[in-house]
Structures are given as structure tokens and as C-alpha cells.
Design goal:
Blueprint: H1 4-12, H2 18-27, H3 32-35, H4 39-66, H5 78-100, H6 106-126, H7 133-151, H8 157-176, H9 182-201
Helix pairs in contact: 1-8, 2-4, 2-7, 4-5, 5-6, 6-7, 6-9, 7-8, 7-9, 8-9
């Protein structure tokens, strides 16, 4: 049971799932960000985000695995993570370009610009130093919520606390699996929080 719990937590908070989770949170924030969209539009946006940021990367990574670019989906070495980081950055930038041409609130496109920048930061840091993508993802969601709370003057205290608690669970899971050192966990979370707070505040 002790060995299963960290694996379950790591799977639930897999970095590729973070954009989909973030959009679900935005859709349920008690503000015009949510009220301006009818349910059918929310469903369509969620499906677009899920397909682009989960299904497409998984298909690409499967091709990478078959061609021995990565040895497994865990991508345990620094070298294996470079191409996946680049792929996700390109996908996120494509989503930014797509959403920036819509009438949606700028947050929906700026989110993907922040995700693009974070992916590139992870890529460049990864060239010299391993960093936790799991923690960067949970940190990004925490930073997004914090930035929105300040920018829109909303009380998201409970949601932010839950997000931080989830990040703590993820950090515990990654350390328990010996996937990262403590410094790699902290650096990943700090990178995610910083990037997303900055972009949210610039809206």
C-alpha cells in the first residue's frame, strides 16, 4: 500500500493533465470568467484542451518510445526529457495562438503562454539540472489561482490552500519514489508558481 500511494498520486497529478485541471478550476471560479461561458462552450473548450495537451503528447511520446528516443514514459534521465519538453512547449504555444484569436477572456490564452514559458524553462534547466515537472505543474496551478485572486480581487483562499496541499502530496510522492531530490522538487514548484503568478498579474 505504501508503494502504491505515491504511484497513484503521481498518476493523478501527471504534468500533462495540469492544463485540463486548470481549465476546470477556471470554469468553476465564481466570477465572470465562468459566468460568461455557457455549459456547451465550456465542454467544447475542455475537450479541445484535453485532446491537445493530453492525447496528442501521449501519441507523440509513444512514437518517441518506439523509436528509442525515450526508454519509458517515466523519462527518468535528463536527456530523455528534452524532446518531450520541446513538444509540449510547441503544443502550448499553438494553443496560445489559437485562443488568442478568439473572443474569450485573455486569461484563457495567456494561460498557454505561461505554460509555454514554463516548459521552455524546464527544458533549459534540464540541460544541466534535473527538475520536477510534476511539481512545476502543481506549482503552475497554484500560481494561476494566486494570480487570479490578486488580479480579480477574488477570495480563493480555500482553493489555493487545497492546491498547495495537493502540491505537498505530489512532492512527497516524487521523493518517496526516488524520482527526485528535495531541491529538484522545490525548484520545480517555485518555477511553476513564479511563472504563472507573473503572467496572471500581467492580464
Amino acid at each position: 500500500m505504501k508503494n502504491i500511494f505515491p504511484k497513484v498520486i503521481s498518476a493523478i497529478f501527471q504534468p500533462l493533465l495540469m492544463p485540463a485541471y486548470a481549465y476546470l478550476l477556471i470554469f468553476n471560479i465564481n466570477s465572470y470568467l465562468s459566468f460568461a461561458l455557457n455549459p456547451s462552450v465550456k465542454i467544447l473548450l475542455f475537450l479541445m484542451v484535453f485532446f491537445s495537451t493530453v492525447i496528442i503528447p501521449v501519441l507523440v511520446f509513444t512514437i518517441f518510445k518506439k523509436n528509442n528516443i525515450i526508454s519509458s514514459f517515466h523519462m527518468e534521465t535528463n536527456e530523455e526529457r528534452n524532446y518531450p519538453y520541446l513538444v509540449t512547449a510547441l503544443i502550448y504555444f499553438g494553443m496560445y495562438l489559437l485562443f488568442s484569436k478568439t473572443v474569450l477572456h485573455p486569461l484563457y490564452s495567456v494561460f498557454f503562454m505561461a505554460a509555454t514559458v514554463l516548459s521552455l524553462i524546464l527544458l533549459f534547466v534540464n540541460l544541466r539540472y534535473k527538475i520536477s515537472a510534476h511539481m512545476a505543474g502543481t506549482g503552475g496551478v497554484t500560481g494561476l489561482l494566486t494570480g487570479i485572486a490578486f488580479r480579480l480581487n477574488l477570495d480563493l483562499t480555500l482553493t489555493i490552500i487545497i492546491s498547495i496541499a495537493c502540491a505537498g502530496l505530489v512532492g512527497y510522492a516524487r521523493l518517496k519514489q526516488n524520482a527526485h531530490k528535495p531541491s529538484e522538487v522545490y525548484l520545480g514548484f517555485l518555477a511553476g508558481v513564479s511563472v504563472f503568478i507573473l503572467f496572471a498579474l500581467l492580464l
